[in-house]
Specification:
The structure is a single chain. This protein is α/β, with parallel strands linked by helices. The chain has helices spanning 31-43, 59-69, 83-95, 105-109, 111-117, 131-141, 199-213, 256-270, 286-295, 316-325, 339-345, 352-364, 382-397, 416-422, 424-434, 441-451, 459-470, 475-491, and strands spanning 7-12, 48-53, 73-77, 99-103, 123-125, 153-157, 160-163, 225-228, 231-232, 252-253, 274-277, 304-309, 327-335, 369-375, 401-408, 495-497. The strands form 3 sheets. A 7-stranded mixed beta sheet has the order 2-1-3-4-5-6-7, sandwiched between helices. A 7-stranded parallel beta sheet has the order 8-11-12-13-14-15-16, with helices on both faces. The longest helix is centred in the C-terminal third of the chain and has 17 residues, at 475-491. The model is unreliable at 177-182 (pLDDT under 50).
């Protein structure tokens, strides 16, 4: 039987031109497209699969690749900041005869709207673990299984938008039935074949990394950098941070054996020395970290890890485990330098004291922090903004930061903040429970009509509307504080940036 799908192009769409860069842009690879490509090649060896990252490959080159390669299936990873480029790719793909499928956070949050408004997009994959859904879609396009059996797929039907709410990982893919592997469901995801991404991409990641962070490795030979993702989720799954747009925060793990197999494979394939383990919260499972330390092979060399951690979960024991694992830098969402704002944004365990304590623990261990600050939460005022600016200066003055990002809050529609905008009744209920004010009732009531149907979002506009409704600090004050933090960081030699902000809004005033 002649296969309908022979050529597959997987693209992590790069940020749209008008968005500012964040501190880590282009320094670590988009692993998702590589992992998708790996499973496709495993399940369908006949496929010709290419994976590229739009964060480092110019849009013009990707467009030329689409035209020359003429993929039968074009898969695009879509974030809120790359939606415009994603649509351009989908339209070009259709022009060259491709079936198009969107995935990742923005596609999942806006799936039904995208399918209603964008004829160039055939399917949306809403799976957090999308590897097996994409493989199943290839089978369905080849006529080897019903489309209705493809997990977490959304698509048009004569009766409207269908959504196949099926398990993301097929039961027969989950290894082990008990013991140490009982919770190692992510062992089902094979170790990524990083050779499926062009070699020049890896060279570019390394060059970008060394240009930005090479000063942290004086006297070391850094031969390669990569991302890995052997665990997912967060301990805050039942009460997530209000601005977190991650769709699935349930804790899932790979076995320690597969973790180190992933490390060893990356060493062999791309000479990786630096690993960004993108587990949403490494500190959420100290037991898993300890299992990795205990299973670390004697001959693995000295791999170094960049991991996500939380201030409220940081303890001397955790820091020591990080040191033994090889953690050289941490990604920590500090969010604010004001205790009142921290409790509103994140929860009762968070405070300025905990942020400071975590910073001091990591400084003592010689582990610098990549931190982020979110301005304009519910009830933000001039005093809390000043506290956050002062905290940012304290972090930098005490040489705790490798990089620091700051930006006004964007109410992601997949997060609680976005849900408040789309449900004014819920917003009023939460405001009453948590003790903050609704400052513009009429504007709040207009939000569902303004943002509830379109698939295109003006990020500055929705952020400004949020600010008007929920923040005592004005939009101009949030921008001023953002610029103050970024300017101070840059002046002290700290890498800085802001995501989900347009260049126009961050022009000096």
């Amino acid at each position: 039987m002649t296969k309908k799908v022979r050529r597959v192009l997987l693209v992590n769409a790069g940020s749209d031109d008008d968005f500012t860069a964040i501190a880590n842009d282009g320094t670590f690879p988009a692993l998702g497209v590589v992992s998708l490509a790996t499973v496709l090649k495993h399940d369908h060896p006949y496929l010709d699969v290419i994976a590229v990252d739009g964060q480092i490959t110019p849009m013009t080159q990707i467009e030329e690749l689409v035209a020359d390669f003429e993929p039968d299936l074009l898969g695009v990873g879509v974030l809120a900041t790359s939606y415009g480029n994603s649509l351009r790719l989908a339209e070009l793909g259709k022009k060259h005869g491709a079936v198009t499928v969107f995935g990742n956070d923005q596609a999942t949050a806006m799936a039904e709207r995208i399918l209603r408004h964008r004829e160039a997009v055939d399917y949306v994959c809403a799976a957090d673990v999308g590897e097996f859904a994409l493989s199943a879609l290839v089978d369905a396009l080849d006529g080897e299984r019903p489309l209705e059996t493809v997990p977490e797929l959304l698509y048009r039907t004569p009766d409207g938008i269908a959504h196949n709410r099926l398990p993301e990982i097929p039961p027969d893919r989950i290894k082990g039935s008990g013991g140490a592997l009982a919770n190692a469901v992510l062992d089902a995801i094979p170790v990524p074949d990083r050779t499926l991404m062009p070699e020049h991409n890896w060279d570019r990641y390394l060059s970008n990394y060394l240009n930005r962070y090479g000063g942290f490795h004086t006297g070391e030979q850094i031969t390669g950098v990569t991302t890995m993702n052997r665990a997912r989720g967060c301990a805050r799954v039942k009460a997530p941070c209000h601005f977190c747009g991650i769709m699935d925060l349930s804790l899932r793990f790979s076995s320690p054996e597969l973790f180190w197999q992933d490390v060893r494979t990356a060493q062999d394939q791309i000479s990786a020395r630096i690993f960004y383990e993108s587990f949403d919260s490494m500190s959420s499972s100290p037991r898993w970290v300890k299992s990795l330390v205990d299973a670390k092979p004697d001959d693995i060399g000295d791999p170094k890890f960049f991991v996500y951690t939380q201030a409220a979960e940081t303890t001397p024991r955790l820091v020591e485990l990080y040191r033994r694992l090889g953690v050289y830098r941490v990604n920590m969402g500090l969010e604010s330098g004001d205790t009142r704002m921290l409790k509103v944004l994140k929860g009762p365990r968070d405070s300025l004291e905990n942020n400071r304590r975590a910073g001091l623990l990591f400084k003592e261990a010689g582990i610098p922090i990549h931190g982020s600050l979110v301005l304009g939460g519910p009830g933000e005022d001039q005093e809390s903004l000043e506290n956050t600016v002062a905290f940012a200066r304290w972090l930098i003055d005490n040489e705790m930061m490798s990089s620091l990002e700051a930006q006004p809050l964007y109410p992601d529609f997949g997060a609680l903040t976005g849900k408040w905008l789309m449900n004014p009744t819920l917003a009023r209920q939460v405001a009453k429970e948590k003790g903050f004010e609704i400052l513009d009732e009429a504007l709040l009531d207009s939000m569902p009509d303004k943002y509830g149907t379109s698939d295109m979002v003006d990020f500055d506009e929705v952020s400004r509307d949020w600010c008007t409704i929920f923040s005592h600090a004005t939009w101009d004050e949030l921008i001023e504080a953002t610029l103050t933090i970024r300017s101070y960081a840059s002046g002290q030699g700290t890498v800085t940036g802001s995501g989900r902000m347009t260049n126009a809004e961050l022009e000096p005033r």
